[in-house]
Amino acid sequence: MKHCTFSFTTALGAAALLVLGHMPQARADASADLVAKGRYVAEASDCSACHTIKGGKPYGGGMEFKLPIGSIYSSNISPDPAHGIGTYSEAEFARAVREGVRKDGASLYPAMPFPSYARMSDSDIHALYIYFMKGVQPVAQAAPANGIPWPMSMRWPMIFWRAVFAPSVASAQKDVNRTFPTPAIARGAYLVEGPGHCGACHSPRGIALQEKALSASSGTAFLSGGAPIDGFVPTSLRQDQRTGLASWSEDDIVAFLSTGRNLKGESFGGMTDAVYHGTQHLTVEDLHAMAQYLRSLQPNSPNVAAWQYDPAAATALQHGDASARGAKVYVDHCAACHRTDGHGYAPAFPPLAGNPVVMSDQPDSLVHVVQSGAALPGMTKAPSAFVMPSYSQMLSAQQIADVVTFIRGAWGEQRLPRRCGNGHQPAEIRSPAGAGRKTRSAELNQRQRKVSGMVAGHRKAATDAQKETGAGSSPAPVLI
Amino acid sequence: MTTKKTDAIVIGAGWAGSILAKELTEAGLSVTILERGEDRATAVEGDYPTSIDELRGAIRHRLFQNLSQSTVTIRNTTDQVAVPYRRLAAFLPGEGVGGAGLHWSGVHFRVAPDDLALRTNVIAKYGKNFIPEGMNLQDYDVTYEELEPFFDKAEKVFGTSGEPYTIKGKVAGTGNPFAPDRSDAFPLPAMKDVYSASIFKKAAANVGYHPYSLPAANASAQYTNPYGVQMGPCNFCGYCSGYDCYMYSKASPNVNILPALRQDPKFTLITKAHVLKVDLDSDGKKATGVTYLDLRTNQEVQLKADLVIISAFQFHNVHLMLLSGIGEPYDPVKNTGTIGRNFVYQTITTSRAWLPSKQYTNLFVGAGGAGVAIDDFNSMNFDHGPLGFVGGSPVWVNQAGVKPIAAAIGGPGGKAPTWGEGYKDAMVETYRHSLTIDAHGSNMAYRDIYLDLDPTYKNAYGQPLLRMTFTWKDNDIRMNQYVVSKIEPIMKELGATRYALGTLHANDVFDTRRYQTTHLGGGAVMGADPKTSAINRYLQSWDVSNVFVIGASAFPQGMGYNPTGMVAALAYWAAYHIRTTYLKNPGPMVQA
Predict the structure, then answer these.
(1) Highest-confidence range of B36-50, B94-108, B404-418, by mean pLDDT?
(2) How far apart are CA A380 and CA A27, in angstroms?
């Protein structure tokens, strides 16, 4: 056995040295403040959710966005001069972030939410630029080349898309400066509509996949719920009853954004990434501002009645009557955590009763969570990680259809969506994306790697799993 | 060579190690835990339904020590040649992050205060001659009042469910009347009594005993602990002992401490790191760090530190002290030395009652920490004078959930046929209609029961194995027989159609092939006298003052209660005194 000696420097110390070593020419104090501010703006903008792959170097890019015509990859935005944005001037950086135009003049795909970032202030853009130049380590690796074949790979048609759908910086900034009831709501609007780019997922999109409204000033479509992403349906963030945030208090929203969980529900899908990389790092003041702003948004569907708990399903189950379709599957596989009354044990296990996901007229999220499971990583303010198991190997498509029908019938949208007729059919229960014919253990391993990558400090490679499943992919739909 | 070092090394990522690592990082130290097993997080490997595979779990020992790399040798008496413990059976040490704290069941007691000064109390009550020849009866040199804040803290971290008796001197509930006074209520209400426990409660009360619901580190409701970690409620699925808890309701270092600790940049966890020895300076008075084997690369690594916490499983602590030359090895002939002295176990037997066929106990239902107990025959709660033995046993129904394979291996019990229809009928009757009552007793320390290094067998790394010399002694056999005789009236009161009383018998020897308990203790005990204890009242080595040894290895006697609550309280107690006294002025905290 060889003999070597091991020494430790704290990670913090090492990081501090790296930062200092990278900015000898600057006035350290002012620059450090600006770097810190820029880091905060990057977190508020959720940059790393797309530009850092799990297990990869910060901002090294390479996250895959799977499109029907091929894959594109997020770019390296570290200050590496060859592979990143090290040669960008601040003006070029601002143009890329706010207008979607690369240094070389080519258009960015609107997977990059520049129509929202157009609202970002000069001061935030400046801080962000300083942070990327001085606070981020250069990553000398190229992101994978995009796999879209010609002629779809041509980016010039994007010029027209931008001209029609992306706001000019001037018009966006003018909208930012509109009148708000309170300074907090103004701040909340800035964060939600601008850097937070919540609308990228939570607003409906038009025929060219443009967001139908980019701010609260352009109609109640804004944040009224988006199209499915990775099989999940973003809910309304407006004061819509049942499918929106009408039943969430300001504190509920703040708790959700800072920990990914509250007494009403838990995050899953892309929202988990948004909380993990982004909102959990925001100050309590900013989170309250966002919550106050969201609570100021009038419902998009004002005539929906408030949700009322119906005890009928629970009463039947608790009296031993599991004759309803899917009830037995529910009792055997779901009730231990979500309870026979659907109330769950929040925050560990979220309630199904009253949950907007259950009441949505689109069952996609519910189906997808039952099929694929969900993993909530530990957050700074809520260090516990929780997993919902994947049932795709344990239950047949018929059983999943049955149990989703039961859940939605018991605690969800009492009017079942038309396309479901008398309930969900197995044909709706597709194989989870990428699962194919993998063995159960392979899938378990994959899922476990994915979760373990998200458990703080739990050192296991998650990269492969993520690439295979496309798990960490875009929170934003991609224009093709 | 080494230019930087970690402030503190913690050996083992079980309860004791995780508590010490949390406390020391809170004190501002950089802390490295070295754990020889795998990393484990309940949301990764312990999730539903991955975790509740009985074959992979309790039967094939997923969470237990890999004996092919290192084990102990065992003999009953000093005139025998010890042989290696090659198959897990009598006791089940854990391996991997969480240690035995991941696979435990969750019974979470404090301590019977009389047990902390058992020698003093026995002598005061019965005289010095009451102590049998060859019994090393000793005090802990710490009082319940001193430990109380740390029992309280541990319960709040564990999310313990229980019913108090007195709080601040006033009766506050229907809990154990023999339990010591509390400064605060349990963080969660007691677990519900399953059917078998509820009828035991009635029967025991009718007989004149004082039944109470067990304090359990199984959460009776969802809970958030002081570290901000969240637990779900127990659903009595029965997969506690031997498993991670997919409901996040059985307390474990993995669920209750490590999620918070892993976020601390001052904390480092190195897994697959088998510590070979604690390194000492040239005069052997100070530890300079440890040498461990990186099991991934098969390279030895030296890690320097100012403070070394030995907090592995009980006998690994003793083994490591012997391998490192910390303190003087115990010599049973000369009666000198302390390392390996007072090795103790527990005296546990199980009795079974079969109930009429209309009464369903459904043994698959259960929670590892829940049940109903009586303390009437524990500790010094009864008059030992006419009985002539030291020690006692709590008695309980602790229906922890009997899994199918375990039930089949255990068989129907009693005089049932061993095959055919009669066997099947008996299995069904036992699984559906029986209940078990345990006498979970103390075990005293004796001069010729001890741990030392084996002269013959070595582990995979070329180091001598630890040798156990252990068997049952007359005092403990008679204690067990007496307490079990007190179960018989309960059996009658229960209306059992038949019952079988389990006891030790005179001249029984320790049988390693049958599971008894993993509650091993002693070998590096705490005390006031460096001639009879390895560590002082703050769990600091008398010989190497920057080494603290935390765990059940500190117990001078095997107590009737389950040890984890005491281990956790001692860990917080030691950590408190390290933080408030030792770190300000490193050196011996008690002058020998």
Answers:
(1) B94-108
(2) 31
Measure in Å the smallest separation between the Cα of B49 and chain A Cα atoms.
Answer: 7
Contact B266, B22 (CB under 8 A): no
How many Cα atoms within 13 Å fall on the side-chain side of residue A121? 13
B52 touches chain A (CB under 8 A): no
What tokens were used for A380? 């700074």
Q: What is the mean pLDDT of each run of 10 residues along chain A (480 residues)?
A: 38 38 51 94 95 91 81 92 95 96 89 94 97 96 82 79 86 96 98 96 89 93 91 93 95 98 94 95 98 98 91 95 95 95 95 92 90 94 95 92 92 53 55 36 40 32 31 32
Instruction: Give me the CATH number covering residue B559.
Output: 3.50.50.60
Residue B1 within a domain: no
Cβ-nearest to A9 among B1, B4, B304: B4
Q: Please give the pLDDT value at position A148.
A: 79
**Cα dist from B568 to A106, B100, B258, B492, whole Å:** 62, 13, 15, 38
How far apart are the CA of A460 and the nearest CA of chain B, in angstroms? 9
Measure the CA–CA gap between A357 and A350, rounded to whole angstroms: 11
> How far is B491 from B397, CA to CA, in rounded Å?
12
Number of domains present in the structure of chain B: 1
* Active site amino acids of B: 519
Pairs of residues, one from chain A and one from chain B, whose beta carbons lie less than 8 Å apart: 129
Distance CA B416, CA B424 (A): 9
Cα–Cα distance measured from residue B60 to residue B54, given in angstroms and rounded to the nearest whole number: 8
Q: Are A79 and A85 in contact (CB under 8 A)?
A: yes
B266 touching chain A per CB within 8 A: yes
Q: CB B259 to CB A5 under 8 A?
A: no
What percent of chain B has pLDDT above 90? 96
Which residues of B, range 304-343, sit inside 8 Å of A by Cβ?
A: 304
* CA dist., res. B93 & res. A49, Å (int): 41
Taking residues B163-181, report their average pLDDT.
98
Of B227, B262, B299, the CB nearest to A2: B299
The answer to whether position B560 is within a domain reads: yes
How large is the angle between the packed helices B564-577 and B15-26, nearest 10 degrees? 20
10 Å Cβ neighbour count for A195? Answer: 27
User: Which positions of A make up the binding site?
Assistant: 47, 50-51, 198, 201-202, 334, 337-338
Does residue B588 fall inside a structural domain?
Answer: no
Residue B323 lies inside a defined structural domain of this protein: yes
Ramachandran region of residue B539, left (φ > 0), alpha (ψ -120 to 50) or beta? left
Structural domain boundaries, residue B238: 6-68+75-582
Q: What separation, in Å, do the N-terminal and C-terminal C-alpha atoms of chain A show? A: 57
Q: What is the rounded distance in angstroms from the CA atom of residue A236 to the CA atom of residue A224?
A: 4
What span, in angstroms and rounded, lies between the C-alpha atoms of B318 and B322?
Answer: 6
Rounded Cα–Cα distance for residues A324 and A322 (Å): 6
Query: Dmax of chain B from CA atoms?
Result: 74
Q: Shortest Cα distance from B1 to chain A (angstroms)?
A: 6
Q: How far apart are CA A257 and CA A192, in angstroms?
A: 12
Domains of chain A: 312-469 (1.10.760.10)
In sign, the C-alpha dihedral spanning B195, B197, B200, B204 is: negative
- Measure the CA–CA gap between B480 and B392, rounded to whole angstroms: 8
